[in-house]
Design goal:
The chain is mostly helical. Helices cover about 70% and strands about 5% of the residues. It is a multi-pass membrane protein.
Length: about 425
């Protein structure tokens, strides 16, 4: 073989390179790593001599005031880029309800109920700790109720390689329902005034988007302006703009139809195989959410000036911070475990036979990682850059770190034990097969 032909062996076609990038971007570990890197970078900058630069970038305002869009960079990240993340969440939610794990009520009942318990109990824990505070403080009751899918699943992927696949299914189902509840809470409890004319106006581009995707239109130059128009109208109405992303995601068809379908390959007989637009859009926009939307939001949302030892002590003695940490580390797993245990006593709703209670305990601790949505709710409850919001960030970061360490430790030990058991079984089979 000539030397001139050697490089050609390793040259990737553009579509193959892009496929590899998409596959890597969809990696659960990469998503969690980017979130962690953005968070650490924000904390370092906010507590270093570069803090004025970081704050000036975050607080720069630009936009169109006539459309209520004169926002800071941080607000654009929270309201704009995060809408892309919620669009992907909406796509995944619809896929699960139409064709996935949530289609069978009996199969989904336990993780759905566990998600509800994992929202109610941490909220009650926060309210109990802040019972003597005023109504302004109690507005943060929903902060410790959310589970961050990217972080939680990334930790499980790292430490739980030898655990039953059903555990990941349970966590994903729980987190998806958790997101749906969080979206409902944001739209219901953190919308102060609603401008009805703007909501009515949003129906026009929303209908156009629905008509286009139902007819299989995938052209970005048509769908993107319609989606932006929906986002602008929802934002101007007073409803949090991320809700627009969910609404758009719910409109995309899941099942392949003669009009709305994407060819994904061929079967064994050479016949074409088609997929629905929901999976196609989730594949494309999931990359944007993983590589751009969520890390950028985390970078501008997690940068809190701790204020040295005195500032940290002040935050850790604030009932807001204590309520968030207790809600995430104690309330979240308690709500999940109590609800799961109660429903597992019902014969028709028993847990998957491959799961053991130590696995569920570790998973419920991991569900206390509340990052993206928790930070967003904190800003909505107390206002960006306020003292209370700074304490929210410290509480969310500390609570999420503790949940990750506790859950990761339990599941890591369980995975190590499962690996030893599997290795022992393999050796026994080899010994029996020897003459």
């Amino acid at each position: 073989m000539s030397s001139s032909s050697s490089p050609a062996r390793f040259r990737l076609a553009p579509h193959e390179l892009w496929r590899g990038i998409r596959t890597t971007a969809r990696s659960e570990v990469l998503g969690g790593a980017l979130l962690l890197a953005a968070t650490v970078a924000a904390l370092i900058l906010a507590n270093s001599p570069a803090a004025p630069w970081y704050e000036s970038v975050r607080d720069v305002r630009f936009g169109i005031p006539e459309l209520h869009l004169d926002l800071s960079v941080g607000a654009w990240a929270a309201d704009g880029l995060l809408a892309v993340f919620f669009f992907v969440v909406g796509l995944e939610l619809k896929e699960e309800f139409v064709a996935g794990r949530l289609r069978d009520p009996r199969r989904a009942a336990v993780p759905i109920a566990a998600a509800v318990g994992g929202v109610v109990i941490p909220a009650l824990v926060f309210l109990a700790i802040n019972a003597t505070a005023g109504p302004d403080v109690l507005r943060g009751w929903a902060i410790p109720t959310a589970t961050d899918i990217a972080f939680a699943v990334a930790v499980l992927a790292v430490v739980g390689r030898f655990l039953p696949p059903a555990l990941r299914v349970f966590l994903l189902t729980l987190a998806i329902i958790d997101d749906l509840i969080a979206i409902t809470i944001i739209a219901t409890f953190y919308t102060e005034t609603i401008q009805v004319p703007w909501l009515i106006l949003a129906l026009l581009p929303l209908a156009g988007f629905a008509l286009a995707v139902q007819n299989g239109v995938r052209s970005w130059w048509l769908l993107l302006p319609l989606a932006v128009a929906v986002w602008v109208c929802v934002h101007a109405s007073g409803v949090h703009a991320t809700v627009a992303g969910v609404l758009l995601g719910f409109l995309v068809p899941v099942h392949a139809t003669p009009r709305a379908r994407v060819r994904t390959g061929t079967d064994a007989d050479g016949a074409p195989v088609y997929d629905g637009l929901a999976a196609h859009f989730a594949d494309r926009w999931g990359v944007v959410a993983t590589l751009l939307a969520v890390p950028v939001f985390a970078f501008f949302a997690a940068g809190v000036d701790i204020g040295g030892v005195d500032g940290l002590v002040s935050a850790l003695t604030d009932p807001i911070t204590v309520g968030i940490v207790a809600g995430l580390v104690i309330g979240k797993p308690a709500g999940i475990l109590l609800t799961t245990f109660a429903l597992s006593r019902v014969p028709a709703l028993r847990l998957d036979e491959t799961l053991r209670w130590p696995d569920v305990i570790g998973m419920s601790l991991l569900a206390g990682i509340g990052f993206t949505v928790s930070l967003l709710v904190g800003e909505l409850a107390y206002g960006s850059s306020s003292v209370a919001d700074d304490h929210v960030k410290i509480g969310v970061l500390l609570g999420s770190l503790l949940a990750a360490v506790l859950g990761g430790t339990v599941l890591g030990l369980r995975s190590r034990r499962a690996r030893r058991t599997a290795s022992g079984s393999s050796r026994d089979r080899r010994d029996l097969s020897m003459p």
